[in-house]
Description:
Elements (H helix, E strand, L loop, with lengths): L2 E3 L8 E2 L5 E5 L6 E3 L5 E2 L5 E5 L12 E2 L6 E2 L13 H29 L1
Parallel strand pairs: 1-4, 2-5, 3-6, 5-7, 6-8
Amino acid sequence: MKEIWHSDDVKDGILFSKLETLQLKVLPRLESFCSGSCNFEFPSLKDVIVMECPNMLTFSEGEVSTPKLQKVKLTEDEDEGYWEDGLNPTIQQLFLKRSDDDSEEDWSHALHKLYD
């Protein structure tokens, strides 16, 4: 699954008025919640967990309103979380961080092989 919501037929925005928690877990092929330019409103959303979604580049191409959301967590037990001035920028920064971590891990593994 590359996306959760497909928005070809949606002209107005989508409102999730009562959703407080969104958990995206173990979705290795997920690239976005919605790849279209659909606008989303999550007025009650307080918790987002994005766990083991290594290919998630962005939440949505459209506008995303999350007035109560202050962090995105990578595990349920995590307290701090991450925040970059909005859900889309946060997801993008987490993807870049994972990419950098993977590069460092590959580099470290290559060095160990070289000196073993």
